[in-house]
Amino acid sequence: ATGRNVSSKIQALADLAGATPNVRMTGVVREGRFTIESGRLEGTGVSATMTGRVSDTGAITARASGTLKRPLHLPATTINTAAIVADITGQMSAPRVQLRLSDGSVIVAGMSADRIVGEAQATLGKTITGNFAMSGGTQGQPLTARGKLTGGNGVWRIANLDATLGGLRLNAPQLEFADGGLTAAFDASGSLAGYAGLDRGTLTARGTVATKGELELNVTGQLTNLREGEARFDLVTFDATASDGQARVTGKLKGRVGAALDLSFGASGSHERDGWIGAATLEGTVDQLPIKTSRPANWRFGENSWLIDAELGAFGGRFAANISTDAGIAKAKLDLMDVDVRALSRLARITPIQGTISGQIDYLNGPEPATGDLKLNITNVNPLGVKADPISIAIESHLRDGRMKTTATGGGQGFSLAANGEIGVHAGEGFNVTPDLDGAATGHLDLNGRAEQLWALFGPDGQNFRGRVNANVDVAGVLRTPKLTGGFDVAEGAYEHGETGLRLRNLTAKGEFNESSARISNVSGDDGQGGTLTGEGEINWRQDIEGNIQFTAANLRALNREDRSATVSGQGAVRLDPEAISVTGEFNVGQARISIEQPAAATIPRLPIIRRTNFPNQDDEGEAVSKSPFRRPVQLDLKVEAPRRVVVFGRGLDTEWSVDFRVHGTISNPEVLGTATLVRGELDLAGRRFAFDTGSINLDGPIKTARIDISAERTADDIDAKVHVTGTPVEPEFSLESTPSLPQDEILARVLFGRSMAELSAFEAAQLAAGLTQLAGGQAGFDPVGLVRKATGLDRVSVGASGGTATVSAGKYIANDVYLQVGAGGEGGVGAEVEWEPRDNLSVISSAQGNGDTKLAVRWKRDY
Length: 864
What we know:
6 helices; about 5% helix; 46-stranded mixed β-sheet; about 850 residues
């Protein structure tokens, strides 16, 4: 009888595991105690061994251990593997079970978890009650769960469930499993980082769910700051309801996937037989361009089939799609009607062009090999503002028997295109169609016309290229490593780089394809001011697209902007690497002019109390990085020398320098290592000149952080004044010192007017204020001297006063190492000075004045 009681309790344990057991036990009765010498439980999914003892009073002490033989299916849960140890104590009428689980793997609501360990305590009476706790992991995220368990007669309840998955937490006051269904109320919140491939994100949701019979659902929530690679969703809100076979979902989405998204969506459906059928709507903007379903989109979803039938108004045109799978047959029919090319070019972040695209795609994949047809017409394509002779391109493509054949023809704007090609295709089930990268590929291209149209599509922003292009290319080999033969040439070309002001004209080039490389030769052009650029090189695509082009510059105006200009000579190379376009070389600067005046944009006033504040836990929005090899960032590694003729001017400063430095980093913000040494210079304050004696600029990072150290002196009637220039090229700082020591405004009054500030007239006080503003960094207004210098092409022009007489002087290099300066006015009358630099650091200076004074000097200097 005692053995039968034990067996009945073991049966209750087996019921808990959903097993149908076969219990075998061997035991003896001694002194009123029943001892289980050996016991074994064999169920449909469980194998266990047992030992233990039952006293004549019904007290039980036993242990069972075992493993699952196959997956055990419970409501909403599947236990794949587990090792179990159970200690049984208490009375036979209601034994207490201490259960320990290890090496477990489970699937809960479609989510798998492994490394499961846990424990539970339960009392086996008419009902089973107890507590449980477990831990494990899923998709690299730690998993924990704990709660209270009650059950019996096929109904199981979990109360006060507290579970975590990584940074996500789930709370459910009660979950009930009965009749194969689930009923629960829950709320969830926390981080989604590391889960489902997400880099970051948070979830907040709450609701109720029941899966008995028809789905009953009421859930509301939001996702914030989701990140996966370059995709970002700042906010996704949703509300979902389901009852009596009807369901509805509404929500909003804001984020960026290549372009900014701001969308509202809604879908409703009805449960029919083995699936769902319904309608959906979409409205909002993509990159601030409107998008909206023209009619509710029809959809169907079943166990082995689905369908989407939608029509969308977007990008100035319409998109219609009918896509379905049913009985192993996949079909698709897509139509594009009068889609605006300008909107698409904006979306693709290329130079805006106008035009329209229309076309259709048909696809069928079933028992027979996949077939497909594409027809695309691009019409009235032109740069913005141009209407004459627009470009039109027609593209046709046909998929048959695992091969895709494509032809393209076009013309307009003096441009003609004729191309054809054929590649292999892998067609799997449904819409799984991919190019055969190792299959044979053939093709031919004839391209003739102006390069402007191609550059508008593929060229980098901020740069322009014009010219005549002819290309004749044949393609063979395999798609992964195509072999090209033929060639191309460029003539009557012109190139402009907006950031540097570089302008080239009369550009020519020739290219010859040699299977997996292209040899480029006869590259030449000029800047229209006597400078030239020549080069040659090679581009190959054996692995990635790489290349190297060597060039030579001769007196080339590489910088040509209002605030800076430079003429350079030397040799360099442009190397196309997998990560960047590298520019290297060694160059000599023939002459350069750099203004320290702030650009007009810098003068726009800003409210000091207003600043941008990022949203919590959100990154600044950045531009997507293009994968095109010709849009890779430009990296510099240059050695630059200039023995002299580097002029820095602005805010009364007029100086000449010699430089020796290396340039590293991006073209937009390079780092410079080296020094610049003052050759000559002066500072003009309200018509009084301070001659610079010494000066240097140390460069060890971005140009804007270079450190300036320049001093200039001027002697007035009763003081010796010195101007010290420090700071950076972007924000130079001027300070005045004197012997004897005086305030800055008093020093300037003595130097400018020869008397104390208290003795100045109103007009002189205004001039003094202007001088102090200049020292403090005020903007230079009308600059007649600068206009004269620019109009005459002189290197230096200075206007001042000496001994109460106006003076003017002008200087220019008449050879690379000979500088001539002519001046008039002052006590010396008309005079001239010639400086010859026969070698670095050594100068011979000869000067003569109109009053007969002459001077010959030799100056030697050395930097330490």
